[in-house]
Amino acid sequence: MSSRIVPMAYFSVNCTLDKPEILNNVRVVLSHTTHPGNIGAAARAMKTMGLQSLYLINPQRFPDQQADAMAASAADVLQNAVVCGSLDEALQGVVLVAGMSARARYISQEVLTPRAAMPLMVQQATQQPVALLFGTEMSGLTNNELARCHFIVRIPASPAYTSLNLAAAVQLICYELRLATGQGEYAPPELNPASAEQVERYFRHLEDTLTEIGFLQDKQSTKLMQKLRRLYARARLEPEEVNILRGILTVTTEYNTQQKLDDQNKNKMSE
Question: What is the pLDDT of residue 265?
């Protein structure tokens, strides 16, 4: 067994391989899967996260129509799946193995969360193949299978019920793996903020309108306007949004003026 592996922070992997090639160096290994639907669902989970390499150790039923149905548009992952007769065959060429287990084991072996473990897998996958090893649905990995793993990965589920469906576990681990490559990062939306002059004209317009319709009173106007300024500052208004808001204020003022005229006319007619 290798020396203790210390979890690392997420890191840049752009300098060695590009991200799709890193994911191609990660194989998902399902050992002795009993239900073919779980194989298909796992294949679908893999494809949504950009993984393609599926290895099956002595599946009870495969190929199978249920696997095809559950795979949906990930039929290519199933078609390219490698069926193996032993763990040795499935791990051939692999240099780092992470074993998935929810059960407490009386084995002195390092246990990591997915978020701590997947950066380690990504780091090694920039150079050589690695494997994510999942056991059978009912009992998980055997002790002999875990002995082939460099560390255990345990999903921090509720202690009251730690059992995950196999495909759900594959989905979660593959998601964390994708995040560890940096592919879960999205560029912030481009902002076109309104100028200070535009915003200030809006606040003057707002204060005049609120005063005219009787919402602002002299004693509270300063404090209330300060709160409104903070509210709009968080919104980071764009020029078009300022124009929309000022348009609302203009219509509000016109409506208020018309209401006053209507009231005056009613009063004249009643005299």
Answer: 84
